[in-house]
Design goal:
This protein is of the alpha/beta class. It is built from 13 helices and 15 strands. The strands form 3 sheets. The chain has a 6-stranded antiparallel β-sheet with strand order 2-1-4-5-6-7, covered by helices on one side. Strands 8-12-13-3-14-15 form a 6-stranded mixed β-sheet, with helices on both faces. It has a 3-stranded antiparallel β-sheet with strand order 9-10-11.
């Protein structure tokens, strides 16, 4: 899968123009604040219908405007060209694939697999448990539609259960407990399998780049770690109901699960240096790429946003070696990062970015 052309209108600070991107590699070179990351965000928003920087689409609208529109032409795995259009207008998002409206984001998610590398990825390592849950849920949703559906249903039931608790409608809780147990245990089983497989990939990748002998692993600690069946979950929810009522929320479930990154059985967020945490966050993404390829046999599109500057030469070379399996890559670099030329393949597209405009560096 590869985009051949992009067009943005009233999106962030980007100039409304057609941008040819028909190449496996696209490099965006320019100082901070010129629009490099904004184009990556536009690509991501086309792929998923949402941004990796904000939950509010209205924040993507150019200053002084009320709507934006994105369009991308891409070539699928069968070499057939398609047109994908996303418009945000009147506080509503509309997505069209070849003039057919896509009403469910689920269809969009499995259309163009996309992985973004950004500075905020460090919070997968040192941030709150919610951020690691998000990473693994995203990773699993990329290849498993059934998991995605169960996650949706679980969240819907959880919302209803919490509302019933707050409203004092305790007679509804047994019904919600059955549904929460059904979807929650399906998710817990899938998370257990996925983390086991992910942990077969991540540690060796980290060692190869860091040149460290320490063992870095991912551990999954379910909230319902004492429950093996739906019936046991229902019983547990019944026994802890008083606690839920006192705290006005559902205090256990897969929304409370923890994914811990450990070094020699200690939390890596407490033992690792900032540089080691940053490197581990990059390896999280390369492991995500390899995991997706293993599960689907497909190559993802990747967006790499100014994340290589902090790596020394040796680590950068090792890291880039791990990053080779993609269908298309968009890289952003500052002008002083001249080493991008070592990464570029023959014929790669290079653009200088100035005030939201993209100037081709032919030759």
């Amino acid at each position: 899968m590869q985009f051949t052309q992009l067009w943005t209108n009233q999106f962030r600070n980007l100039v409304s123009e057609q941008i040819p991107v028909d190449n496996r590699q696209v490099f965006l070179i320019g100082p901070n604040g010129q629009g490099k990351t904004n184009l990556l965000e536009a690509v991501y928003t086309l792929c998923y219908g949402s941004s990796f920087r904000t939950n509010q689409l209205r924040e993507l609208v150019c200053q002084g405007e009320k709507a934006f529109k994105l369009q991308g032409m891409y070539r699928d795995d069968a070499n057939i060209l398609h047109t994908l259009t996303l418009e945000y207008k009147d506080s509503k998002r509309s997505v069209f694939l070849d003039d057919r409206e896509i009403r469910d984001r689920k269809e969009l998610i499995y259309n163009i697999p996309c992985i973004v590398f950004s500075h905020d990825d460090i919070f997968f390592i040192k941030g709150e448990p919610e951020q690691r849950r998000h990473f693994f849920d995203q990773t699993m949703s990329m290849y498993n539609p059934l998991f995605f559906d169960d996650l949706r249903r679980y969240r819907a039931v959880l919302k209803q259960r919490n509302m019933a608790i707050k409203d004092g409608r305790t007679n509804l809780l047994p019904v919600y407990d059955l549904q929460l147990a059904k979807y929650g245990m399906a998710i817990q089983r899938e998370r257990t399998r996925a983390v086991y497989e992910f942990d077969q990939i991540f540690p060796s990748m980290y060692r190869s780049v860091s040149q460290s002998e320490h063992e870095i692993h991912i551990e999954y600690n379910p909230s319902w770690n004492t429950c093996a069946t739906e019936e046991e979950v229902v019983d547990y929810l019944s026994r802890t109901r008083e606690r839920d009522l006192n705290l006005s929320t559902t205090t256990s479930g897969i929304h409370r699960d923890r994914f811990n990154v450990t070094e020699d059985d200690q939390l890596f967020s407490q033992t690792g240096s900032t540089g080691q945490l940053r490197l581990a966050s990059l390896i999280f993404r390369t492991a995500q790429m390899a995991f997706f390829l293993k599960k689907t046999g497909k190559l993802p599109l990747i967006l790499v946003d100014d994340v290589l500057l902090e790596l020394d030469i040796i680590k950068r070379q090792q890291f880039l070696h791990l990053m080779q399996q993609y269908s298309q890559a968009f890289f952003t670099f500052l002008p002083e990062e001249q080493y991008f030329s070592d990464l570029a393949e023959e014929g790669a597209l290079v653009y200088t970015v100035q005030k939201g405009a993209f100037i081709s560096n032919e030759g």
